[in-house]
Amino acid sequence: MRDHPQVHDQEYTLHDEQCLITRTDARGRIIYANPAFLEVSGYTQADLMGKGHDTMRHPDMPLAAYDDLWRTIQRGQSWTGVIKNRRKHGGHYWSLASITPVVERGVTVCYACVRVKPTRAQIETADSAYRRLRTGITGGLRLRAGRIVPGGLLARLRDWRASGIRARMLAWAGLSSALFLAAGGIALHGMAANLNIEQLALAAAVLAAGVCLIFASGWAYARTLSGLLNTATDFTRQIAAGNLGTPLAPGNPDDETGALRFSLEATRRNLVGLARDVHTGIADAPGTVAQRVETEDLRHAIEVLRIARAQPRPAHPAA
Prior knowledge:
Elements: E1 20-24, E2 30-33, H1 35-41, H2 45-48, H3 63-74, E3 79-86, E4 92-104, E5 107-116, H4 120-135, E6 142-144, E7 147-149, H5 153-162, H6 165-191, H7 197-240, H8 256-284, H9 289-292, H10 296-309
Antiparallel strand pairs: 1-2, 1-5, 3-4, 4-5, 6-7
């Protein structure tokens, strides 16, 4: 990482509708930056092309955050977290960044980063955590795919309890199993005097099977639902990264999960059609593009097209 001594406390706050997009190759070298990113960062295309993101690294960002980022995306997973970047002339800006491997035909060809405005609470939480990571006084705090994981047993239990649909469903399945076991145990205890050993053993086996069935059903449903949500999340991240060429496998249109898959795939196809229509309209339009492109919606559609049509060649693996 390079050292950047020219920094000051002037913060640039992103607008609610700003979306900053960059692409890097497998070694982290910038190969694309959209106009919004150039405006916010203060850099030009010439400043950035072929350079690493460490050009914009703010000294307040701990190395642990970047280590976590690269570990995550090199596993083919997306990283989402709050990042403090240095602007060209020394100021800084905070963004909620999602870095996604862009996959073409099963091969990661580059990485796309989409940045939006974070909330002030997200900034304060990240700033406090990064300060602890820089000083080494972490108390067990660590990062996992950009997410701040608290230290300490009680904090981790609270975090586990609150995090994710799968964890909550498993917790409810466990609670239901425990209640069923308690109720069955009380009933079995009350009937114990009227049952022989074989009957008690059979009743206990039925009770145990019921507990296992309740928990297994909850686990299977949680796994199915979380798998669908993960698939949908990965798919929408590919779209956000400008990759409109990866279709989503269809599901059963008669159930909720199949309907969700159908809607997501329809969204992708509509975006592809929109991008093609815009490109055709601009190619056929008389006069300059600047005279024809007047609305923000059309400019955004052109941006989607530009990213979608950029077919980067697979980069060599990082050394």
